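Exercise 7b. Backbone tokens:
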């Protein structure tokens, strides 16, 4: 019976999340933002976009999930973007994230709702487990779970990999706390740490890891006389096991990172210098007062003369009004070590977020943190407030009728009133210019804030003679209503008809069964949406790309989205296997080179001189200077069919096979994500040039015999062929992945060993968190 009552509280949290996600779970809709693209060609629909700020989902994450779903299993390579890019090595795709793997048999549209539910439930449940371990009541635990799982950070980044990593913060803290009584908890810590990395967002994983490490040191300092070195060794060992378990993702990512321009791109953005203005903290009280991209009114900052420097996602860490008051109760009334810790962590995080010196300089000096967006420490603030609210609720219940509690409530209301007064003073001269719709929207935000203050005052003055459970119902109920009002609808639930619908032009392209790529401007079948329809695009919109390919297209490197807005047709165009150029309207192209082959909702031009994906080239020249190779392949007179440029001296061609040949013939037998098979017939020794990106991990065989793959024409793959008939096979089996699997196996063995550790930690002392200093 006791366990059943305990489960009730976890079910209550799940119930609140079911309300948030009911459309995507029960009404056949998808929790996806793909309708962001439907106003663009080739769709050209006159619709109101549900949330323009979530465009990364439509152009990056959903197409990647669709690609993985179409290629059942785990494709290691993606040939449909930028002439081929690593799929597994792109960590933000999170191909090995457990929830992604669990739902991999479901298409991304249908999986979006269950995926979001699992993420938020696990985040909330582990928060409840953690604060229960600190000794708080069931009501306080439910409150903490609601605050964290429905916090602004978790809501606005729900469809991004940030939440994949952030959701494991409470789990890691729970296992650290539990390890002081049970050494086997380190096994759970290692698994949660691996899952955090597999979540796919390294900056968030770094933030979480730093908080967890600081927390462990804080707890270790209290046990410094009790095997501190041994405990530190267990922490380091569990972290190492977590890294081993995630090695199949980490090693391919590091390999790709080394060969990409990601570091240069991140450095040029100077993320360490990004911060919120102190005035932006008003959004902790009025999250939508300057507009919300899901409902509109984004012109409010301009109309009110309010300077807004960051977008809604970057500045939003809303946790509700009542939890802020309860956190203040914990800080002022409950003098325990955990209150001090989470208050300190939250306060320092706010200073970093607001760019208060010396923190910006410190972030710039640290080699890892200088590439992270420190505004996303709103995750840490949100979780800290959730824990403080749980600690504060129990203290509030114990001291509700005391004078000190009422003073705290009065001080809180005064502080909120002062912040509101500041906002009013700054913007009051412009309020009279608002139209009725804008004014009604702003009034709604004021009403929610006022209602939260009324509930706070009402709880403070609640008579002790009334039912004991009633204040808890009011507290949890209002917090849930407050946070659900904020979060509902931010991540749009759309009907399937608005999920990348096919158009006549797309269907026309799909009928061409040859191997080809397309090209277009930024808004034309926006990257990476083409791969949703099984089309290969020379463009790509991603956070990592092969440096060589970027240089081939632009001549430069260091731009995350270098190909979302290409400046005309690139000079290396003939090398890209482009057969069709897509345009929203007619464009001036040389009719001797391009044919207009489709003209309806969009214009499609066929490139008459399109190179086949696989070519035979007989003449070869070695040019070790990569800059010289780039200059030559992008020159107007370079013809890849006549000359192959290599950067290393090739080995002698294999011995001739088959009978005499007088004709050259190349046929692609099969073309899969990780495997390509080609048959070729040559009258004399030559080279097979495959216009796919050269990358470590690709191997080739010619007639069953291994052959080296050469980097050709700056970015592509070539192998030597003998005279006669040959069967060529390319396979992508990166050594980084194989080594990662071996390390993962070692991690599993270590994990099994950790599960055999003794239950007791050795100190034999219970360490309740609720004891005051």
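Sequence design result:
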């Amino acid at each position: 019976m006791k366990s059943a009552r305990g489960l009730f509280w976890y079910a209550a949290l799940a119930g609140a999340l079911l309300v948030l996600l009911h459309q995507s779970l029960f009404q056949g809709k998808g929790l996806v933002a793909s309708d962001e693209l439907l106003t663009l060609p080739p769709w050209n629909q006159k619709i109101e976009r549900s949330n323009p700020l979530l465009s990364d989902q439509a152009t990056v994450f959903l197409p990647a999930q669709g690609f993985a779903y179409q290629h059942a299993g785990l494709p290691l390579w993606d040939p449909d973007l930028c002439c081929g890019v690593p799929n597994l090595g792109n960590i933000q795709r999170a191909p090995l994230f457990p929830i992604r793997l669990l739902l991999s048999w479901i298409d991304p549209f249908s999986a979006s709702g269950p995926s979001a539910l699992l993420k938020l439930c696990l985040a909330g449940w582990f928060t409840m487990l953690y604060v229960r371990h600190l000794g708080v009541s069931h009501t306080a635990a439910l409150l903490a779970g609601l605050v964290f799982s429905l916090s602004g950070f978790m809501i606005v980044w729900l469809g991004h990999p940030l939440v994949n990593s952030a959701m494991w913060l409470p789990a890691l803290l729970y296992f650290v706390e539990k390890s002081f009584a049970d050494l086997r908890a380190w096994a759970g810590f290692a698994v949660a740490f691996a899952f955090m990395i597999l979540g796919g967002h390294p900056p968030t994983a770094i933030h979480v890891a730093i908080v967890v490490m600081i927390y462990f040191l804080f707890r270790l300092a209290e046990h410094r006389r009790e095997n501190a070195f041994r405990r530190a060794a267990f922490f380091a060992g569990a972290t190492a096991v977590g890294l081993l378990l995630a090695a199949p993702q980490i090693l391919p990512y590091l390999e790709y990172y080394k060969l990409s321009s990601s570091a240069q791109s991140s450095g040029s953005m100077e993320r360490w210098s990004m911060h919120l203005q102190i005035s932006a903290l008003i959004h902790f009280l009025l999250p939508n007062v300057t507009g919300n991209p899901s409902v509109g009114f984004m012109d409010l900052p301009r109309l009110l003369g309010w300077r807004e420097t960051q977008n809604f996602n970057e500045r939003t860490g809303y946790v509700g009004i009542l939890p802020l008051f309860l956190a203040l109760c914990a800080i002022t009334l409950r003098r325990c070590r955990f209150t001090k810790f989470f208050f300190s962590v939250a306060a320092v995080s706010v200073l970093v977020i607001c760019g208060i010196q010396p923190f910006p300089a410190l972030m710039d000096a640290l080699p890892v943190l200088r590439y992270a967006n420190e505004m996303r420490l709103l995750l840490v603030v949100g979780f800290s407030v959730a824990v403080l609210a749980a600690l504060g609720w129990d203290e509030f219940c114990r001291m509700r009728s005391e004078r000190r509690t009422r003073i705290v409530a009065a001080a809180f209301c005064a502080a909120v009133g002062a912040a509101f007064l500041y906002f009013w003073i700054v913007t009051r001269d412009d309020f009279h210019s608002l139209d009725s719709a804008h004014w009604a929207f702003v009034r709604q935000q004021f009403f929610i804030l006022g209602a939260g203050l009324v509930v706070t005052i009402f709880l403070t003055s609640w008579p002790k003679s009334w039912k004991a459970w009633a204040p808890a119902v009011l507290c949890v109920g209002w917090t849930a209503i407050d946070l659900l009002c904020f979060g509902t609808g931010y991540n749009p639930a759309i009907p399937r008809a608005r999920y990348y619908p096919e158009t006549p032009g797309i269907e026309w392209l799909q009928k061409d069964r040859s191997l080809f790529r397309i090209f277009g401007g930024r808004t034309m079948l926006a990257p990476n949406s083409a791969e949703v329809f099984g089309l290969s695009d020379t463009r790509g919109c991603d956070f990592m790309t092969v440096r060589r390919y970027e240089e081939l297209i632009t001549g430069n490197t260091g731009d995350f989205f270098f190909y979302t807005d290409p400046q005309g047709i690139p000079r290396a165009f003939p090398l890209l296997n482009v057969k069709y150029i897509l345009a929203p309207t007619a464009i001036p192209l040389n009719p001797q080179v391009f044919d207009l082959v489709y003209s309806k909702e969009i214009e499609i031009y066929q490139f008459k001189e399109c190179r086949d994906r696989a070519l035979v080239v007989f003449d070869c020249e070695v040019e070790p200077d990569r800059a010289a190779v780039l200059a030559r392949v992008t020159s107007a007179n370079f013809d890849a069919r006549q000359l192959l440029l290599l950067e290393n001296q090739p080995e002698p061609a294999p011995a001739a096979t088959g009978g005499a040949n007088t004709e050259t013939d190349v046929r692609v037998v099969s073309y899969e994500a990780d495997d390509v098979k080609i048959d070729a017939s040559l009258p004399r020794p030559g080279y097979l040039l495959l216009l796919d990106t050269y990358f470590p991990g690709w191997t080739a065989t010619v007639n069953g015999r291994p052959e080296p793959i050469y980097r050709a024409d700056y970015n592509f793959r070539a192998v030597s062929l003998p005279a006669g008939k040959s069967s060529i096979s390319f396979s992508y089996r990166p050594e980084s992945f194989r080594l990662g699997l071996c390390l993962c196996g070692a991690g599993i063995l270590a994990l099994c060993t950790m599960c055999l550790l003794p239950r007791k930690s050795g100190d034999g002392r219970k360490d309740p968190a609720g004891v005051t200093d």
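Instructor comment: The longest strand covers residues 724-732. Confidence is low (pLDDT under 50) at residues 763-773.
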